[in-house]
Amino acid sequence: MCTGIKIDYKDGCVMGRTMDYEVPVNYNALYLPRDYNICDDLMGNPLYSKYKTMGVCFENKTPLKDGINEHGLIGITNTFTSFNLYNKEINKEKFNISSLNYLTYALSNYKSVEEVIEDLHNIHMSTRDYKGEKVSSPDFHFMFTDASKRCIVIEPKKGKLEYYESPYNVMTNSPSFKSHVRRLEKHIDLDDLEGFNSSKDLPGGYDPFSRFIKAYYLREMNVKSRNSKEAFSHFYNIIGTMVMPEGFVRNKKYNETTYTRYICAYDTKNKLLTVKFHTNPTVYELSFEDIKNKDKRHEFFIDLDFVTQKL
């Protein structure tokens, strides 16, 4: 139950997400250097990074949930539950990879959204490797942007990957992108946003449809950002309306609660990672220039305790 939003400014854009998760998990920021063995493909071949990348991961493990590379390509994953999303066997004529590792591979091997699209026809996702053994391939869809401010959503459909240009600059969860757009157009006259009675008719629920409509409207109606600092500020203000407090949604399957574990946002121009954890209101920042030894993998752990600063 995650929400992604992109905010434009004059020379670039900021894109980020809420990470809403149903089970306890540790998370931290991660820097991956060039020529780093990020994972193996489903044929058992090691895959290496062409570009420096950083993002947020679970349990200090390499698969990134969201991130940015040294060229300003930003990507995020969101849960996308459906049927027959991926194939159950590899395709020897294509590049075989799990959905778990695709985002990390894309960020560390493509410079731009255009390159992501150009190679998409060659990508084959499967739930099994070349030995026929099951691999972790979660139900994901993806959103990418870059310095051009172009925004796309990639979705698996019946074993294939499809991409959609997204002038809406928002991504939530299932159902499909086209379904979200149809519901949005039914709920709001996109040619007359000023005439929409937001205080009365803007959805307040946390289901994917409601969050998509709400995030789109708040983003479109927000004052324009003049620079990256304003874009970050507007992003965190808007995304704050999507945050799920701990205990709000009970998950009976795991006897836990689904809530927003962290919020992160990335900047295409300044190549920045920013992140805020659910128990700590401080927004932390990391740039590629902050990395002392750029040829090594680095982990960054943030204080989860509530932090304030004296006036």
Structure notes:
The protein has 311 residues and is an alpha+beta fold. It has one domain: Penicillin V Acylase, Chain A. 19% of the residues lie in helices and 33% in strands. The chain contains 6 helices and 19 strands. The chain has an 8-stranded antiparallel beta sheet, covered by helices on one side. Strands 1, 2, 14, 15, 16, 17 and 18 form a 7-stranded antiparallel beta sheet that branches. Helix 3 packs across helix 5. The chain is globular and about 55 Å long. The mean pLDDT is 93.
How many domain units? 1
Structural class: alpha+beta
Query: Low-confidence parts lasting 5 or more residues at pLDDT below 50?
Result: none
Largest sheet: 8 strands, antiparallel
The termini sit apart by 36 Å
Q: Tell me the strand order in the biggest sheet.
A: 13-12-11-8-7-6-3-19
CATH architectural type? 4-Layer Sandwich
What is the helical fraction, as a range of percent? 10-25%
CATH topology-level name: Penicillin V Acylase, Chain A
Assign the CATH superfamily: Penicillin V Acylase, Chain A
**Strands, count:** 19
Task: Give the helix/strand layout.
Blueprint: E1 4-9, E2 12-21, E3 27-32, E4 37-40, E5 46-48, E6 53-58, E7 64-69, E8 74-79, E9 95-97, H1 99-109, H2 113-118, E10 123-125, E11 140-145, E12 151-157, E13 160-165, E14 170-171, H3 177-187, H4 198-201, H5 208-221, H6 228-239, E15 249-251, E16 256-267, E17 272-277, E18 284-287, E19 298-300
Parallel strand pairs: 9-10
Antiparallel strand pairs: 1-2, 1-14, 2-16, 3-6, 3-19, 4-5, 6-7, 7-8, 8-11, 11-12, 12-13, 15-16, 16-17, 17-18
Helix pairs in contact: 3-5
